[in-house]
Structure formats: C-alpha cells, structure tokens
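Folds abound. Consider this:
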Amino acid sequence: MALVEDVIDVLLKHREGLTAREICNVLGLEPGRENDVYSAIMKAAKVLRRKGLELVMIPPQCRKCGFVFEKPKVSRCPKCRSEWIEPARFLIK
C-alpha cells in the first residue's frame, strides 16, 4: 500500500500529470518496476474516488497517425503498426 500512497503524493504535487515512467523516476524506482506503478495507479484511483477526487488518464496516442488508445499500456498502433506511441499521462482532479 505504500507504493499507492507514494503515487498519490507524487501526482498531487505534479498537477500537469505524469507518465508511469516519470513516476518511477520521481520515486527513484528502476524502470523495470513500471508494471508495479501501473498497478498502484489503478489502486490509487479507487482510494481517490473514496476521498472525492478523480484520477484522470490522458490516453496514449500514436505519434505517427494520431490513433487514441483506450488502455493505458500499449506497445504498437493497430492502425499503422507504428511503435512510436506517446505514453498515457495520469493526473488528479
């Protein structure tokens, strides 16, 4: 639960939003823990909802064709097959 609280604190301090990789960097975690950060973000959304706040995801988008994804973690565009993806950003409102 400590990682969830750390993610919430980081997002509250960075109002412009952060990617999972940026959250890892701020918390001093190695990039291999990105999956743990995604899990913590999903849990943080539930905690924040109980507090009357909302975790918002700015969805990932293909930089080549502009396709907007629904899921936060993607690797390749289904439309143009590009791997040049702008990662999801998370922020608290």
About this structure: The domain at 2-92 is CATH 1.10.10 (Arc Repressor Mutant, subunit A).
